[in-house]
Amino acid sequence: MRPELGQATHAVRTGQHQFVDDQHSEALALTSSYTFDDAFDAAEKFAQRRPGNVYVRFTNPTVRAFEERIASMEGARDAVATGSGMGAYIAVSLALLEQGDHVLLAEGVFGTTTTLYRGYMRKFGVSTTVVDVRDNEAWSAAVRPTTKMILVESPTNPLMRVADIGFLSRLAREHDLFLVVDNTLCTPVFQLPHTMGADLVIHSAGKYIDGQGRCGGGVVTGDEDLIAEVRGVLRTVGPSLSPFNAWIFLKGLETLPIRMRAHDERAAEIYAWLSQRDDLDAVHFTGSPDHPQVELVARQQTGHGGLVSFEIAGGRREAWTFVDNLRLVSNTTNIGDTKSMITHPGTTTHGRLPDEAKLAAGIKPNLVRLSVGLEDPADLLADLHQALAKSQIRKLAG
Ligand SMILES: Cc1ncc(COP(=O)(O)O)c(C=O)c1O
């Protein structure tokens, strides 16, 4: 890797290996196994005494190219790709945690992440305390002698609350904990958690990294030693990334810097329009000048991406009426696509959380999440306008 290169150059050039004659665009190595020079070569590679590919569950040249590229963009020394974002979480957890350990988890993270730690990890003797992501005193107070890991999304999805990553990294150092930051929403284009002290950075790669809603996948970046431990889990447990998906992500990274700026510009325009409306109770966007953590946002992020969530006057009925009447914006639960998408988190992404946990995390029945795509903003505004009008007619009709 060449740290002197700029991020947009890494996005296009890093991880380019010539394994097909004279190829210019990165090749897709669709192979699950690799031939060995002789029996000794196979034994040495299996024992990891000699570098080289062994089997697709551990390595593949296209997957490796994606890992190198995203690691360089995150400013990390290494990366390991996984079959999904949740695959990244389970691989990190199996690598770093053991029975009796305690995890501090930010409140309001993606619902399935909460289900993983409060549900499945508990079955294996790992306990979790959920902490308000914005409250540094609460983070300090929640540390126990058995705490091993702090896990945050920043900003959180969908409420756009922000963790003080520098503070959490100091707390982690003080107590010898691992700090893991989910950077799916900002991507390395707008936020570099490793530079603020994060040990590991996680992505759901099917979001902005893909950018066109085609494939699922995940990735973890960090120092070689920690990444080797996570890769060891993949070798044994198996949530590895398919080479085809890795190729899509590798090519997706090439346009990530320009796409993120385009999402950001459109989201700012939509936010400005939404914030003037009187049929919304609240609008959440890290680019808002009224964001309650505006100074922290400015310190940590150089942009905001495409996520804006808002609370529609009324309740679940008005939110659903709004969703059902959108004509251009798709009703789907993904984020980071070129196509704008609407989600009702309370009954989808966060639907499995108990009602108290939803309310504590601010997932109200009238909350909707908009992932602003790359359509003409005027067309999006017209669609939002007509669907909001219908939801308010429904409200008046009682
Ligand atoms: C911020 C964030 N992290 C992790 C995940 C999980 O990733 P995946 O769906 O790829 O398993 C999601 C999914 O929506 C997400 O939004």
The spatial strand order of the largest sheet comes to 1-7-6-5-4-2-3
What is the approximate shape? globular
Low-confidence stretches: none
Order of H and E elements: HHHEHEHEHEHEHEEHHEHEHEEHEH
Going by CATH, the architecture of the largest domain would be 3-Layer(aba) Sandwich
> Any ligands, ions or cofactors bound here, and which?
pyridoxal-5'-phosphate
CATH-assigned homologous superfamily of the largest domain: Type I PLP-dependent aspartate aminotransferase-like (Major domain)
- List the domain count as a whole number: 2
For the terminal residues, how far apart are their CA atoms?
A: 61 Å
The proportion of residues forming helix, as a percent range, comes to 40-55%
CATH classification class of the largest domain: Alpha Beta
